[in-house]
């Protein structure tokens, strides 16, 4: 059997039906890794741990001299081919990893991950990441710094847009799907940021986090463990300090949990200059100490710090870092490169170029985007556009903002490829004989309203107003934390003027997080959240606005009424004084409702779904069994649609306070008008417990309540009793994931 074939099998994580073949393949890699490490000088070993970006400080000769193990921000075949040719001039000819932030697309842009999460559909996540990987790998990129598995409960944090929201189960399912999709499309995944990065104090990017260890295991770590199980090639250490210990020097995270408990045998890279930032964290006096602390904690690769390459040889020779530690880091990197088959891949053709989005790519991007759109409210059935409509006024600068709709981290996205909301609406309206006018009303940031009179006049002359507002790209993503989540600039003023015309209004929101709407939520009848929908956003939005596609998205985050409610999340712990209306001394605010504007899992449709006859199959459960909860779902409306059936549980009496609800399973179900299906969601008993501080998992004997419905407000379906307590050690995987049956 050729070694390249063996490596190809491993890179696809294929499971052989013959155990000895699988062992032989792994042994072949380990033998080759050890042979190569045995030939390397200390400087060549440290070179494998050095990750540098295109442009300064990269010296091209570093590649031929074996002083770089990976590079990033290489995004075209010509540069990749040049680097590969320099590798062939090096003594050992060890191939490079070519890394890039392929977050939600390469040339074709798909919705940002938070929007993708709103689809509640792992197939969609797989499709988007597979296609992004195909386009990136075509020009030589073989490694992506994605997915971001950071859970966040605070919409002030700008990078919430890069993750899957506030729920650990939803995040786990979608993280695994993205890892799988990237691999299928030709990219090795880097799951980031390990860990706790999504819970910074005050929602401020890069700020410190304080999370008890049991809470880490229950809430913030599950998506990362799902990434390990799905075959993530690498992990990225987070910028933040966790409970006073920076993640880049956190041996508990990187060694005890990731490697010893979970069995991860890939490699860990720092984030951008993350090793050097240990000095700013106040745990290292200089670069040498920072390098020493990072590698001893478990960071194998130094991204853009040049501290490993500059200091580790001296640290090893001085006896402060054992060479065996360096050797193990090198093994992890070489193992990954061999699993990816890089040693046997030919040099890329330097003339290979990225192509504009193909017809197929656009079709998939449109399919993905329209599943992510969330209809938040639709009073008086303003949407879809009614058949008698003869004119539409599209108001707002974001309606024609091809760059902004791609969102942050758009890799090689070209704004010229984008179908804007205005273009999509115009094209669809033309087919129906509807006239469309556009008036921006204000500039992109809505600082000036000089154009407002023209917008108001356009609204008065139209049968329907489609107002497109929200967050320009600049207000979302990394380093875009916000203290105020109200619509920025003078957007409220513009919308109030449009409301005053008396015309029916559909507010279409673009952005990377929930926006505080204030009184507008009551005064605007229809609100559609579109996130950053990507290249085909305009067509996808038009599909939903005109009713060609029935909206099916659900909120992956809780939508607050006010910024002061944050952090806010559905799976909170119960209060000793639950909210009682008109009772001051219970859980409440004196100046705002305690409830969210829209709860987690919320999303409307153009049809009506009815839940009935919910039931729990077995009243007594033990280890190895499943909690089966069934419900009858009926489409009582006149349109075909999709509904996300969601199962939540609660442990009402336990040895420690447990959340009021926890999502345990979901299934997206398609129904024609008048159609009925019986949906059964099945959850392993071993998933109904909680973690202790040491990472062990306990399912306590006692009652479990089950709730099933279309959001986190689901009605109770029944309860079951777990007859025996189950304890699972930290290094032991729990039972298989939840499943579903639709009849």
Helix residue percentage: 25-40%
As a whole number of angstroms, the C-alpha radius of gyration is 26 Å
- Global mean pLDDT: 95
Strand order of the largest sheet: 9-6-5-4-3-2-1-10
DSSP E strands, number: 28
Q: Write down the oligomeric state.
A: single chain
For the largest beta-sheet, the strand count, sense and barrel status come to: 8 strands, parallel
Low-confidence stretches: 1-20
What is the CA–CA distance across the termini?
45 Å
Structural class label: alpha/beta
Put simply, the count of helices is: 21
The outline comes out as globular
Strand fraction: 15-25%
Polypeptide structure, described:
The protein has an 8-stranded parallel beta sheet. The longest helix has 21 residues, at 19-39. The protein is an alpha/beta fold and 743 residues long. The protein contains 21 helices and 28 strands.
Helix/strand layout:
Elements: H1 3-11, H2 19-39, H3 42-48, E1 50-53, H4 60-64, E2 70-72, H5 77-87, E3 97-100, H6 113-117, H7 122-138, E4 143-144, H8 168-185, E5 188-194, H9 213-220, H10 222-230, E6 234-237, E7 241-242, E8 245-246, H11 251-261, E9 267-269, H12 277-281, H13 287-297, E10 302-303, H14 307-317, H15 323-339, H16 359-372, E11 374-378, E12 391-395, H17 421-431, E13 435-439, H18 452-460, E14 464-470, H19 491-499, E15 505-510, H20 520-523, E16 526-529, H21 537-545, E17 609-616, E18 620-621, E19 626-635, E20 641-650, E21 662-671, E22 676-684, E23 690-691, E24 697-699, E25 702-709, E26 715-722, E27 726-728, E28 739-742
Parallel strand pairs: 1-2, 1-10, 2-3, 3-4, 4-5, 5-6, 6-9, 12-13, 12-14, 14-15, 15-16, 18-26
Antiparallel strand pairs: 7-8, 11-16, 17-19, 19-22, 20-21, 20-25, 22-28, 23-24, 24-27, 25-26
Helix pairs in contact: 1-2, 2-15, 3-14, 3-15, 7-8, 7-16, 8-10, 13-14, 16-21, 17-21
